[in-house]
Amino acid sequence: MSIVKVIEVIASSEKGFEDAVKGAVAEVSKTVKNIDSVYVKDMKVHVKDGQISSYGVICKVAFRVEHG
Length: 68
Prior knowledge:
Layout: E1 3-13, H1 17-29, E2 35-48, E3 51-65
Antiparallel strand pairs: 1-3, 2-3
Organism: Chitinophaga caeni
InterPro entries: Dodecin, Dodecin-like, Dodecin-like_sf
Protein name: Dodecin
């Protein structure tokens, strides 16, 4: 039987949404093995002086739990 666990993470980037998701995956990959998928739950931007200053994402990261 295979077990999949899901964690929720928040990441941001000054470049864009795609970069924020890539950053989330890179950071989670440092401590979590067997990542299967990432679901972007929510996206937002921060605005400063009428300009977008950063992009943020809330992601659900799914990974298989190893037996043993």
